[in-house]
């Protein structure tokens, strides 16, 4: 039985839930906290798989998938940071 295929299917279904819309009852702080925890978990998982692949205990396909997810998470974080900095600079340019 190919366990990596099962693991991949479980991760896909878990990621699928993250894209579904949620009720807007959460405060902005708790939503940001959830996003930060998910981001940290993605980075941690990528790092763990990279370490495991260095000693030959990880499937190369899983490693590539984890690195792609990590790259996407970092790119999203950089995009959000750039937008926040741009908005801050726009506020600074407003006349008083």
Automatic annotation (TrEMBL):
Compartments in which it is found: Bacterial flagellum basal body
Protein family membership: Belongs to the FliE family.
Q: Report the domain of life of the source organism.
A: Bacteria
Main localization category: other
GO terms in the biological process aspect are: bacterial-type flagellum-dependent cell motility
The organism encoding this protein is Roseovarius mucosus
Q: Keywords in alphabetical order, please.
A: Bacterial flagellum, Cell projection, Cilium, Flagellum
State what protein this is by name.
Flagellar hook-basal body protein FliE
